[in-house]
């Protein structure tokens, strides 16, 4: 049986994508829009958010009691498999969330639920298709390749697998079954290259 080969972004590609999202060569929108797009990408790359979860996030899940949260909880009704999970926030994501508050959220006065990511009003979050377009378009320009939001989650999972035990990866990804997580145990091109390179290193 042929094993599923997951495609991921290399560290260099991640840097190029994030850099473009923050500082596009031909800016089309206000700088705060670029920061919103950058923060969404970070939530997929550093927290493993699915795009369907991302568009459901509310502001107080990311910024609470006058500070960025230290961990993000994806609630049951937001998760694809209705399985709640909590993911620690990385340092760069913490900085990005704080800037989101200053550029976007501190001006919101709407009552009730307030979407974290929107275009014009916090009661109308971005759609999955809108986020897909943002990421795909950024990938075409910065990486010259076709990418999609789930590729960022794959990249997060693959990086985790190199640094954490399988049960921890399973929990952070929100997989109910270990078999869903085990697809990330298979080596990719980067793993194979590192294996060969290590043979050429001087002892």
How are strands sequenced across the largest beta sheet?
Answer: 1-2
Instruction: Give a short account of the largest sheet.
Output: 2 strands, antiparallel
CATH architecture: Orthogonal Bundle
What structural class do helix, strand and pairing data support? mainly alpha
Can you say what the CATH homologous superfamily is? Answer: Intergrase catalytic core
In CATH, what is the class?
Answer: Mainly Alpha
β-strand amount: under 5%
Task: Specify the helix fraction band.
Answer: 40-55%
Straight-line N-to-C gap: 37 Å
Give the beta-strand count. 2
CATH topology: hpI Integrase, Chain A
Sum up the overall morphology in one term.
Answer: globular
Radius of gyration: 18 Å
Count up the domains: 1
Order of helices and strands: HHHHEEHHHHHH
Mean pLDDT comes to: 85
If helices are DSSP runs of H or I spanning 4 or more residues, what is the number of helices?
Answer: 10
Any low-confidence stretches, pLDDT <50, length ≥5? Answer: 1-5
Summarize the structure in words.
It is a single chain. The protein is mainly alpha-helical. It has a single domain (28-196), classed as hpI Integrase, Chain A, CATH 1.10.443.10. It is 49% helix and 4% strand. Helix 1 crosses helix 6 (128-142). The longest helix has 15 residues, at 31-45. It is globular, with a radius of gyration of 18 Å. The chain starts with 10 loop residues before the first helix and ends with a helix. Residues 1-5 have low confidence and may be disordered.
What's the gist of this structure?
This protein is mainly α and 203 residues long.
